[in-house]
Design brief:
The chain is α+β, with helices and mostly antiparallel strands. 31% of the residues lie in helices and 21% in strands. The chain has 13 helices and 10 strands. Helix 7 (212-222) crosses helix 11 (299-308) and helix 9 (250-258) crosses helix 13 (334-343). It is globular and about 80 Å long.
């Protein structure tokens, strides 16, 4: 089913057959199309705001229509596409019965993934797989998807809601796919990175969308905490700390691109942490020396490490440790890069440098 347009279903009682047994219906099997239609009306206003001039048809068709570059801004356009999911952070949202942030999580995550290659995000598609459609989950998820897309001038081109009680039970999954565009000559690959470049770290709001399996294991299973618990030094409940939405770094990147700041490489710090993500953009013969403590580590991560006695190296592979993105730039561009981050309302700091080495690796230094 397309999650933004559904066909009406028959709501009359199911007729009985000759032996008195009611005839089977889709609703009795666990799929309520009418409920979906009713809930959808509550978020149509938000959905209509998540659009762009290139969208050629309203939401609801079998496929979304989007005209690429009608103003001919690009001479040799390259499409950049990414897909990802929110993961087990959704389980924390269910524990809190609060879903108004997970749409921001998946949209911002996907926007960041194409933006680090220099691409302008254009349109987004979502997939909501769920065992039983219910309120307020449905309205909060779709509403937050639309809000996040509108905030970054991304068109919510369409999506899919699959109500499958036999597959998901009471659980649900949320996945997003995004498409961006960049001039071929301006694709950022990391090939321009050289020894002597600076590593600029951009602050994270929390775990973003990674490391939740370890976080839940430590906080809920081993330590026995609840989402409402407020441990010493945390300053908020465990649930509130875990549900902080993923930061979108596109506003800062957009400013840097517009001002011709030489972004030699960028990395979105997601699953795999500093170690696995930064090396994805390092060319051969370079090593990234990343300085611990350049940006503050969120208290929730300190708590996880303490309660789980997690080794430091493991923390930096499972979590972003307070640094959700890195820019690699020449030293002369430091002031300009930091100003772009400041204008976007993002905390940033010099978090290391690039040095010569035998292979593209990441080293953590005190």
């Amino acid at each position: 089913m397309n999650n933004h347009q559904r066909s009406p279903s028959d709501t009359s009682p199911a007729p009985a057959d000759e032996d008195g047994q009611a005839a089977a219906s889709y609703r009795e099997a666990g799929v309520d199309i009418d409920l979906a239609q009713g809930l959808l009306t509550q978020v149509k206003g938000k959905l209509s705001q998540a659009t762009r001039p290139e969208v050629l048809a309203p939401i609801g068709g079998f496929g979304g229509l989007f005209q690429i570059d009608p103003e001919k801004k690009y001479h040799d356009p390259v499409m950049v596409v990414s897909i990802d999911g929110v993961g087990t952070k959704l389980m924390v949202a269910a524990m809190m019965n609060r879903y108004d942030g997970v749409g921001h999580d998946i949209v911002n995550h996907c926007v960041n993934d194409v933006a680090v290659q220099g691409a302008e995000p254009l349109y987004f598609l979502d997939y909501l797989g769920i065992g039983r459609l219910r309120s307020p989950l449905y309205e909060q998820v779709l509403g937050s998807l639309a809000e996040a897309c509108a905030a970054q001038n991304v068109a919510l081109l369409g999506g899919e809601t699959a109500e499958m009680p036999g597959m998901y039970g009471e659980d649900f999954d949320l996945v997003g796919c995004i498409t961006g565009v960049v001039e071929r000559s301006r694709v950022i690959t990391g090939a321009a990175i050289r020894p002597g470049d600076l590593i600029i770290g951009l602050a994270a709001s929390g775990l973003h969308t990674n490391g939740y399996s370890l976080a839940r294991e430590v906080l809920f299973k081993r330590a026995g905490l609840t989402v409402d618990a407020i441990p010493d030094g945390l300053g908020e409940s465990v649930g509130e700390a875990l549900l902080k939405p993923h930061v979108c770094y596109w506003p800062a990147i957009r400013r840097a691109l517009a001002k011709e700041v030489p972004l030699h490489g960028m990395a979105h710090i997601t699953g795999g942490g500093w170690i696995d993500n930064i090396k994805r953009v390092l060319p051969a013969g370079t090593v990234a020396e990343c300085r611990l403590g350049a940006l503050p580590v969120p208290p929730i991560m300190r708590l996880i490490q303490q309660l789980g006695r997690v080794e430091t190296a493991e923390m930096y592979r499972a979590f972003n440790m307070g640094m959700g993105m890195v820019w690699i730039i020449p030293q002369a561009a430091e002031k300009a890069a930091m100003e772009c981050c400041r204008q976007a309302g993002l905390e940033a700091a010099v978090a290391g440098r690039i040095v010569a080495g035998e292979q593209n690796t990441v080293t953590l230094i005190e």
